[in-house]
Amino acid sequence: MHSLETLTCPLKRKFETMVNDTSNHKELSPLLEAMTTPKTKWMPRGYQLDVFKVAMKRNTIAHLDTGAGKTMIAVMIIKEVALSLKKQPSQKKLIIFLAPTRNLVQQQFNVIKENTDLVVDFYHGNNMGNGKKIDERDAVAWEHVTNKNQVLVMTPQILLDTLRKAFIKFEMISLLIMDECHRASGSHPYVNIMKEFYLKAANKPKIFGMTASPVIKKGVRSVEDCEDQIQTLESVLDSVVYALRNRTELENVTPSASERYCYYHPSKFLHAEVKGELKSSRLKFELQLQSKFKDVDKKLRKRLRNDHDKIVYCISELGLLCAYESVKLCIENAPKAVEGCDSFQQSFSKYFHFLEEALSIIGKLLPTGHENILDTGCDYEKMVAAGYISPKLFELLQIFRSFGEATQVLCIIFVERIMTAKVLDIIVKRVADLSHLEASYLTGNAMSANHQNETLESFRSGKVNLLFATDVVEEGIDVPKCSTVIRFDMPKTLRSIVQSRGRARKSDSKFIIMLERENEKQRKHVCDIVQSEHTMMDRAKNRDPNTCVTKPSNLKETETYYVESTGASITADSSISLIHQYCAKLPREKVYTPKPDFKCLQVEGLYECEMTLPPNAKFHTITGPPCKTSRLAKQIVCLEACKKLHQMGALTDHLLLNNEHSSPSVLKSINITKGGPRATLHELCQKMHWPSPNFTSSLVECGDAVDKRTSVNTFECRISLTIPHYGVVELKGDPQADKKTSFDSAALFMLHELERLGKIKIG
After folding, report:
1. Are 691 and 685 in contact (CB under 8 A)?
2. Start-end of H helices in 569-671
3. 371 and 363 in contact (C-beta within 8 Å)?
4. Contact in structure between 576 and 639 (CB atoms under 8 Å)
5. Nearest to 155 by CA among 476, 585, 581
6. Rounded to an integer, what is the distance from CA 127 to the centroid of its chain?
7. pLDDT 10s digits, 734-754
8. How far apart are CA 55 and CA 206, in angstroms?
9. Where is the Dicer dsRNA-binding fold domain (predicted)?
């Protein structure tokens, strides 16, 4: 294809001929034999052993290319530490493996489970490895988790939350592994874990970090700047970066994608008229959002502006066809109006009318039957000339067409916006020339965990050929057969370009960056990133790890409130979210969400913040002490409020919301058909974050036991339900003819008992 330009050389020899090459280990050393995994017969390479030996001596950040096997080095360290822990059976210790995304948690869990004999489980988002929701867990449940497992794989936010709630004691952790540890900057959970717990711990765990790009900013300006960024990361993680000086073996066994640029012409269409119409329509409906619910109008106004921005972006970057589909997606994802609230429905109708008008404005510029315009025989250049598709999208389709009839291609297309991924997925599926290729999209938190896993597995297996993705799959996701990676939107940082290129794992793979012709800003940006990477690699390789001294940590401690009885803690910067959670749990109207109100006043150069809680809160107002900034004043007043709520019993000793003080849950009715009472009780327990009830059924023999013909067997069920911060409620139902009906009887008795206790209301 004429618009592609190759930048780098291919591999010296085929990757497939090297992955099983063990010529460097003709005689296995005792250490190598010990590290060889029993399940997969995997054998570490020389450079992996080098990193392993260094990591066992001191806290280490392994700086290795993507695909170099950093996770397997972590597995070696895990096995070595686990072996040493066996010699201390009296002390319960944990190995924690942190990964920043749900997909990475699942992937790393699978690697550890397959390559060790240790008891391991994973936790991410709202799910735990055993299928239960993380919100349902309490101190007793976490005690069971820590006693049962040797290795826990989780997101850093979950570890931070469990440490703050004192469900896991930091002193229990013997080894802390941080995947993609370059994220340790700003207010990331990695930073907060180190600041709030590691620095204060008397017995600190071993740290092992893994990254392909140990710089924490967008790029590096100089060697000195690069060194400063590396030292900052080392300081935060109390570790030393280790990079290979001799990269020969690594380069021989790690596939390297050839880099290319794909140039597209600037769009000749500005679409100024249609953009003007859309803006006028937006302003018209914004002015009409004037209901009595100001919060609702504010949210709808914000959503209207966001949807308008998405549509205009698609017009500029993708063309009118994609913009039309973006409006349809906005309509599909629009919030549902609340029944019984006329004022809200009127506001919602204004927002919805804007989307309908936007669809009409764009639709009148498209030809009749445009849904089938990409059928066989489509003249793509005429489509560009008419403004239906952008030159950028045209070049992307040309790349796809260059794949030919091959169905083995696996290609990831990285985009910046979720809307772009969804729209491109729709459009490509309509292109007749590409009907032999299956497309899908992956967009992180906008998709459920199950949907993400299914999509990723479909891509790995080859059922999906073209995967449009946001940065959710940039880091760490392993797809060995991925043959092409396309940066449809510009990579913004050095980390982004290193990580996304690393997804191209197959030999002779391609990494394509799309650039606009004659756009000097884009060219300079890419050149700066490329230069930054060279500087980073040279600096990391030439550093002497034996002479490197970790800088003292400059992490500033934040004001913290501790609960003596449990060790639970909350910081000033984490207290704001807890106050919002508390307010959200208060009784509410249909469209009104209870929330705190803040007023900051400046007094003699300092700031004082007054917070007002909803009328049905435990207290109404509280004023914090004078602070240097308004942001800090808001944090401190929230911290004081959390302290007061705990003292008043609204927060438990683990600083969780106390359901005992919330209003009873209302059940409209109980389904009394077979299975209905049980289903109602289980749904109630899920809603209230209670453990599932325990049913025990026993056989009861009635009648004349001597004459079996006249005796009758019935079933009697005993039910037990544990209500957090209240206790255990036990009772039994009436005898029934079969076991399942006896369960229903016991569940029905329990529901009425809960109403008597004031825990629920039955309509």
Report:
1. yes
2. 572-584, 630-647
3. no
4. no
5. 476
6. 12
7. 888 888 888 888 988 888 888
8. 9
9. 575-665
